[in-house]
Amino acid sequence: MYEFDFKDETFDINELNNYSLFIKISESNFAYCLFDIKRNKFTRLKSAIIQNNIETFFADDIFKQYSGKVKFVVYSTKTIIVPKAFYSLEKEANILEFNVSIDNNEEIYRNKLRNDSYNIFTINKNILALIKSNFTNFAIYNQASVIINENFVNQSKDKTTLLIESEKQFIDVSLFIKSQLIFKNTFSYKTSTDFVFFVLNIFDKFNLQPEKIELIISGIFTNESNEIIMLSNYIKKIKYAKPSLNYSYVFNDTKISKFTNLLNLIHCE
User: Fold this and answer.
1) Does some domain include residue 119?
2) pTM of the predicted model, to two decimals?
3) How many domains does the chain have?
4) Residues of the chain with pLDDT under 50
5) Per-residue pLDDT tens digits for 154-177
6) For residue 182, what are the domain limits?
7) What is the pLDDT of residues 181-200, one digit of tens each?
8) Domain for residue 179, yes or no?
9) Rounded to whole angstroms, what are the CA distances from 171 to 29, 65, 204?
10) In a domain, 217, yes or no
11) Which residues neighbour 216 within 8 Å (Cβ) at sequence distance 6 or greater?
12) Range list of H helices, the chain
């Protein structure tokens, strides 16, 4: 069922009270990791490709034994960042529906971000029900919330950074200039050409010079992805995201940038 299960030799299932548990749910991937609080590093990473019913993944033995607070990153294309001055709980639906349509099977959720703004987003009601039925102590974050919070904690005040989180048929794009969030949007795409068009359009819109910015990729894209191969014809300096905290050497057997958002949940309050 799982594509891999990486365990550091120090991992001890009998000491789960010494770990923090983080879970990722996207259209293509279900994964979780455990952070060893005493050793200050991630020591377990387990991942599965979602093909059918996601309910089966919630039966994992770790979840049955874990009693602490669980943090989730749940992916959605329907998300908007709102400054604190313009946010109110009563107007969430109006704000979000001004930009996207909300389906009957979706519920509105929100995150208070470290940069003193709010991320309003949707979450599938079935996924929300699964989380509530399996966990009593949890927090849910959208992928954009994790990216923005991580940038706030590890901000580069003198850099311009374009972060692209890649998922199945959509990308989440965030532009930071001198640690300030300048642009944030999600783009659905069907072809590699669509992806390249969206990225180059951002460079053009904000007059970005490829040799002077950090373009950082996370999510499902790798050097072998058609999207990256095509983009590299125009943008030569492409980096891949890495978690800001230590992780076990056994994680090196996978492309860690795929799980950066999952591991960076540690910086979400």
Assistant:
1) no
2) 0.94
3) 1
4) none
5) 776 778 999 999 998 899 999 999
6) 156-240
7) 999 999 999 999 999 999 99
8) yes
9) 15, 35, 18
10) yes
11) 161, 162, 163, 164, 239, 240, 241
12) 61-65, 92-97, 125-134, 143-153, 192-205, 226-231, 260-263
